[in-house]
Amino acid sequence: MEDFLLSNGYLLGSTLGEGTYSKVKEAFSKKHQRKVAVKIIDKLGGPEEFMQRFLPRELQIVRSLEHKNIIRLFEMLESSDGKIYLVMELAEGGDVFERVVRGGPLPEPQARALFRQLVEAIRYCHGRGVAHRDLKCENALLQGLNLKLTDFGFAKVLPKSHQELSQTFCGSTAYAAPEVLQGVPHDSTKGDIWSMGVVLYVMLCAGLPFDDADIPKMLGQQQKGVSFPTHLGISAECQDLLKRLLEPDMSLRPSIEEVSWHPWLANT
User: Fold this and answer.
1) S-S: 141 plus which of 42, 83, 91, 149, CB 3.0-4.6 Å?
2) Is there a contact between 60 and 152 (Cβ–Cβ < 8 Å)?
3) Domain of 161, in residue numbers
4) pTM (predicted TM-score)
5) Running along the chain, 268 residues long, what does each successive block of 10 average in pLDDT?
6) Active-site entry in 3, 42, 134, 187
7) CATH code where residue 6 lies
8) What CA–CA distance (Å, rounded) separates 30 from 135?
9) How many domains does the chain have?
10) Closest CA to 10 of 23, 18, 90, 32
11) Beta strand pairing status for 130-131 and 83-88?
12) What is the CATH classification number for the domain harbouring 233?
């Protein structure tokens, strides 16, 4: 692995994270004279469904996206031993989850500045007919004051009509919308909107809106609606946006366009 990357001009560094079938390492690009992140996917190590269905989809999608709030793909390499290397932009500030764990709830103006960038990234994706389907704080990376969305491993290209109903459960339980957890046919873009609500809640409250330890109990909590710790003093406008994002009825949940027009995001 190291020899292969070295022969392609990359010096491998420390491990940044590990997924089920992949790991991400820091590297130095001799060609570009900059640090990069390299996602290493072992084609032989994963189940057939992942390799046949999800991996080709991820590779097709990451190649097609170019937005200032999405981690950029520089190069894709494949070695003879069945490993794929995605050379990507490195976000040196870690992720939103780490930031909150380290520093506690974010002040509302800071959360708004970051969330606005997530809205822009998802607006771009949905506009291009792509649903992310695994939005969570760990997939929102930080580069200074900039948020960069990453990990399109569960992403899906929607049909041209956008009238797509999926029954696939993917993503993380804590961030999954009620219809996704229940396994009913659902609109993946509306699932993204719900997950964005969980991300915003975690930014502001440094905790999850619903307890994911017990799924049936969690579904009950989701139907009752979200509540807020009073001591944090979250503004009425922000609470209104969170209630809309975390609307249990997906037909009443806003589209990403409607989210982008919300008064809380228009505030500076």
Assistant:
1) 91
2) no
3) 94-266
4) 0.92
5) 87 87 90 92 79 82 95 92 92 94 96 98 96 96 96 87 67 92 91 98 96 92 93 96 97 97 88
6) 134
7) 3.30.200.20
8) 32
9) 2
10) 32
11) unpaired
12) 1.10.510.10
